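for ur thesis appendix - 4Fe-4S ferredoxin-type domain-containing protein. copy paste whatever u need, i formatted it the way the template wanted (i think)
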Amino acid sequence: MGEAVEAWAAAGRRNLHGNVMQVVQMEGEGGVAGALHALGLHDHVVQMEGEGGVAGALHGALQAGALATTFTCSQGLLLMIPNMYKIAGGLLPCVMHVTARTLAADAVSMFCDHQDVMGVRQTGWVMLAAADAQEAQDLAIVSHLASLKARLPFLHFFDGILTSHEMRSVSVLEPEAYRHLLQDPEVAAAIAAHRACGLNPAHPHQRGGAQGADVFMQMREAANPYYLAAPGIVQATMDDVAAFTGRPLRLFGYYGHPQAERIVIAMGSATSVLQEAVDHLNAQGQRVGMVNVHLFRPWSPQHLLAELPASVTSIGVLDRTKEPGGQGEPLYLDVAASITEDMAGGGPMRRVVGGRYGLGGKAFTPAMAVAVFDNLAAQQPRNHFTVGITDDVTMTSLPVGPEINTLPAGTYECLFWGMGSDGTVGANKEAIKIIGEADEGTYVQASFNYDAHKSGGLTVSHLRFGPRSITSSYAIHRADYMGVHLAAYLTKFDCLSRLKSGGVLVVNAPWRSAEDVAAALPARLLRQLATLQPRLYVVDARRMADAVGLGGRINMAMQAAFFQTSGVLPLDKAIPLLKQATSKSYSRQGDKVVAQNHAAVDAALAAVVNIHIPAAWAAADAAGFTPQQQASLVGASDNTAAAAAEAAAASTPTALAAKAAAQRLGLGDFYSRLAEPMLALQADSLPVSAFQAGNIMPPGTTQLERRGTAVSVPAWDPASCSQCNACAFVCPHAAIRPVLATPEELAGGGGTAAAAFETLPLRGVGSRAAAGQELRYRMQVSPLDCTGCSLCSRVCPAGALSMVPLADAVQQQDTAWLFSKTLPSRAHLFDPVSTRGSQFQQPLLEFSGACEGCGETAYVKLLTQMFGERLVIANAVGCSSVWGGWEPSNPYTVTPQGQGPAWASSLLEDNAQFGFGIYTGLKQRRQAYIAVAQQLLDGAAAAVDETAAGKGFGSAALRAALQEWLQVADNGLLCHQAALQLQPLLQAEAAQPGAAASLAALAADAADMLEKPSCWLVGGDGWAYDIGFAGLDHVLAGSEDVNVLVLDNEAYSNTGGQQSKASPLGAVLSMAAGGKASSKKQLGLMMQAAYGDHLYVASVCLEADHKQVVRAFAEAEAHKGPSLIIAYAPCVMHGITDGMKCSAAEACTAVDTGYWPLYRKLKGRVAELLARENRFSVLARRSPGVSADLQARLQQEVEARQARLHLLAKEQTQQQQE
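the 3d part is after this line
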């Protein structure tokens, strides 16, 4: 919401008073915006470093008599609680718009529920809930007007993602209506009164002082009349707004049978689902209804009771939140209290039960709504129930029947299975706008689901349109049209079970005939197709995108195929509108990109192939499947998702390999219980018993995915290879690695090694194994784990890697990859503090969900190669926590000995403190262990264990090993070697009969305590430069041995590319649509200037200088005190002209020109870099003069910074010499 406001300001859009919004950056965080009044009363958009800062700024603006608002959600809302109390206590009118979302508990979730808004219900803010996008507009107006009249702050909320990110047809109120509402004398008087109370030396007063116990309670109770009056004011304001909109609003809106016996009460988007269920049940002769709660605080029992039909005997209350250990959830408790008090006063007898639904964005469908009504019809309805899950632990769940069709007649539904970064979602957003705007009588709705992979993951687009308004806030169950934009999804997911019989199926594939389809798909899918008999169309969109220069962006080709095959609009009308929308969408990227997309549209229209489905496919061989598996996948049945997942998984070589890998890694139970259904999109059906409370994920689970998303993968040419390992060094996903083997090991591989494992004699140090055997070298790719970014082939100095189609490489190379995993590690033969040697170390970060070509992962992968056996990571929420920790995929793995990175994430703002706490806890435990070991070694065993007194302590060999370990216990590298010698001695002697208990205790903790942990605080620039800066500064100001790695991609990349204080001057980003006008914070220089030699600081760029980043990591880890490494991380958000495949070259240019300093001589000017990145070039095309000025200022900044760095280096050299 804040981004839209800032974009309006950049475009010069004026509000009702003729003012253009002025954007003021205050310690800017791109993810939070403040100070726009929905009615156009404000002239400033203010950005703060975090939600707590926003609340403080909001409070201050209100105290000054300004009119202000803000937008937030989830943890951000909780950070505002202290100021929310202050604002309400001061009777200060304002509005906060909240997209209600989940609070992080055992895990982070970005999806919808009401935990955040329920967490602030006690602060004194009036709370209004909107059910859909239309109500969100209408109640936003109501909130702003009523807040002024009531002299109370309002929190207007609606469901995050489900409502906030939904696209649908709405009726927009015209500006004149707003103007008329503002001219209400009561509103004008309220504004004047608010301003009169503002702080001003012309009429000074004091607010916010301290009070004693004698008066505080009375002062709080003095506000009661304002809250008592609020419901009436809100209803009156609703009536005023409804006079313009024609859409009546009630504090509690009843819908249903006038003599309903059973009703359900709820808030938010679930109410539209309940309405559909009410219509469905009443059409069957039942008498049911529902109540849509708009005003939640202050709660008004009399208004609720007035809406209930007198015939109501049973009431169900649905809460989209959970209060562990409570008597019930908040809405249920309010309703139950209201009904109980009414019955005590002589009202009718009514039974009230409550339940939970939809936590973390869990779907709520019409079938679930029917289940709630059915529960009310029972003789003893279940109370404190759950719906939408199978709770086989505490048995709270209601049984849910098959899904029902409650959509308005004539609704057409479309499902698109796309791959992240292929443009499918963006194209569908344009399509829904084209369809909705082409015919005023057509209503549209669209929502979009994404998996956790930053790029290359699954996206599912749900599009509906029809002649009546659509408010269905749930996924499409049976589609009229289905587009499968990656053919592999047909076998990986149970796509066809969601296609209507006789529907349209369009697949992006190179097939040209039924024979091609039969050769590519398993028998079970052929049988499904024969049963469903869809109209099957195929288009080779990837070939067309490649031909016109779009690479993986297949969206326009598939969108043209959609309009051609679906018939939703006349083609002669649809295609010009599509091209017009394309021109608008891609104009920022230049005329060439627009022309390429137009060419893709034209090519697709001529290349769509209609394939007839032979009747013989109905009898396709299904050997190898059980009858139950066959039945579960024949036709559009309503069989359980679990059976469908079982059958789908059994059919693919990739799934079989994943199962074998799970067994090999000891993850068989985890894979079958959780990972397999989650990866197959069948986890909605998992019961509660499948999960373990506390949520601990095992390591290395990404190697079970074998996604196979690359179009092309690298092929190795041994004859050209220089064995430098640069390709492995830059690989973001650890999908290409050097492998060493002896001739005997190769011979032992039999035909596998001979056919697919060509090798070279190893060059240089370590060329022979311990026994003098010759070692052979190979660069091996994992084709099913590679994302096809091609960085490896581009950085190879010898041209030994070329990209080949995945289909041509997968069989042979995957066999070779699996063989390479059986070979022993020879990492000990090489120096890990070198480019080449580091890559012989096992990467303990592999196959993450990061974008192809990601600039972040290679740094963290290198950390795991250098320190992984003793590495502890505290990860700030952001890109690195999503690609590093989205369940069930854990990319952090272990050595054959079971050691590896220990990883945890708390929040965004507290990562420095969180990591510092981890370090402190580990340090305290280890110091206690060292103290005990020293006492024992000194002969003071009696102080620890009296039974050991006078007996000495262990053998001479053990005492010598312990003495050596104690001497180096604080040196990570030396301590590791000493621990390898000490641990087996401790364990052996502790196991001997009669061993002292103190020795046994020391041995028991040896595995945890002998190694010196290498603690790293990892996060992005949004954390380090902005919201977490205060905590980071505090940690770096201390003397503890913690290391900080800032992955600087110069924006809030995880949330769409908003500006941060790391964003450079002149860059066009969200919240900086007119080009960022302020300079990048020089974090490294600031910290070095503040804390000097006490702090180790480095600025690195992995792609530009391999040696420097390796040395910086080693020096930082060895430094006795805090360290800070700021790492340049090219990002897809930079809009590099030729894509992320060129990110390494772009990073080199950034260093050469001084844009990113490595404390060396500059080469060239920053303009060379900026011209190739869309975040800068878009401003040059749109506003050349502004761009030139900002770029000139940026060049001056770079040169000035370089001069300061040279001066610092000179001063440090002089100090060292002195």
